[in-house]
Amino acid sequence: MTRTGGVQARTKRDHAVTPQAALTPPARVHTHPQGIGRTPPQDATEARMSEDRIMSDALARRLLTVPEVMEAMALGRYKIYDLIRSGQLESIQVGRSRRVPVEAVDACVARLREEAA
After folding, report:
1. Per residue, what are the HEC states of the chain?
2. Is residue 8 in some structural domain?
3. 69 falls in which pLDDT band (50, 70, 90)?
4. Does 36 have pLDDT greater than 90?
């Protein structure tokens, strides 16, 4: 805002912001590719339903992204890439993107279960 003769004049860039609104943090937005622009779920049940829907959409496809594999296997990014590097988790390169077949995730989980037994 600019001052003109003791009165505050608004410029095009200024927005009317109340003191309370200035202190309120903005609402968080999901960062998942399929969740961009949505407001966060309000309760735990809605959050689980949202996650189940995302996972069912992802598993309906034949190839998964690394973040989707992370979600499906409940492992971190480093561990997923470590499994890929060691050959325990099959993946393919599509252009500059890394994709993991759904069957490879199932096979890797079965192999890890056998090793643990």
Report:
1. CEEECCEEECCCCCCCCCHHHHHCCCCCCCCCHHHCCCCCCCCHHHHHHHHHHHHHHHHHCCEEEHHHHHHHHCCCHHHHHHHHHHCCCCCEEECCEEEEEHHHHHHHHHHHHHHHC
2. no
3. very high
4. no
Give me the pLDDT at residue 62, please: 87
Specify if 103 maps to a domain.
yes
Q: Over 80: is that where the pLDDT of 67 sits? A: yes
Q: Report yes or no on 76 lying in a domain.
A: yes
- Domain holding 87, by residue range, is 62-117
Residues 83 and 56 in one domain: no
